[in-house]
Amino acid sequence: MYIHNCPECGKQYSTQEKVNRVKCPYCGAETNVSYSDQDQPNFQEQWRQFGNQASNALDSVFTNGPSGKSRGIAGLLALLMGALGLHYFYLNKPTAGIVFLLATLLTCGILGVVTEIVSIIQGVLFFTSTQQEFEQKWVYTTSNFPLF
Fold first, then answer.
1. What is the pLDDT of residue 71?
2. Any alpha helices (H) in the chain, and if so which ranges?
3. Alpha-carbon gap, residue 80 to 11, rounded angstroms
4. Rounded Cα gap, residues 121 and 78, in angstroms
5. pTM exceeding the 0.85 threshold for the entire prediction
6. Please, what is the average pLDDT of the chain?
7. Least confident of 35-39, 49-53, 116-120
8. Rounded distance between C-alpha atoms, residue 133 and residue 65, angstroms
9. 58: pLDDT confidence band, cut at 50, 70 and 90?
10. CB 104 within 8 A of CB 118
11. Per-residue confidence at 3, pLDDT binned at 50, 70, 90?
12. How far is CA 132 from CA 3, 22, 48, 51, 119, in A?
């Protein structure tokens, strides 16, 4: 995961891979990107920088972290629409989202009960974890299908 700052609107966004040119999803500005010798950004360093910008804002469960993902939004999606896997799509884990969606739709909801129970547990975990734990375990993980 590579974090970029848009020079036009100032918002942070991320890419999964190294790219030469990025397009800001917020304002559409395109920027050339250069990378340091470091292969992947240091997670702790990103959090230190983010903490300096928004140390008091992290108290709210609906505050976006450095990845731009809110554990409150993810938790609500997991609790309310978990059987459809919408929380996985929100977390940029489409493989897991498709598995949950197909399990629910193709079995006429029979496996939807199982996926909903798993999603309820995940939703509670989203709300009870810190923003840093949430980002590390669910957003920045290399796993395509993080469960617990």
1. 92
2. 43-54, 71-81, 86-90, 94-106, 110-128, 131-134
3. 29
4. 9
5. no
6. 82
7. 35-39
8. 11
9. very low
10. no
11. confident
12. 15, 25, 11, 10, 20
Would the CA dihedral through 44, 48, 53, 57 be positive or negative?
positive
H runs (alpha helix) in 29-70: 43-54
- State the average pLDDT over residues 92-107: 92
Q: Is 23 left (phi over 0), alpha (psi -120 to 50) or beta?
A: beta
98 vs 44, 84, 106, 124, 131, CA distance in Å? 31, 8, 11, 21, 25
What is the Cα–Cα distance from 9 to 28, expressed in whole angstroms?
9
Joined together, the tokens standing for residue 132 give 């840093």
Q: For helices 71-81 and 110-128, give the axis angle rounded to 10 degrees.
A: 160
Side chain identity, residue 50: F
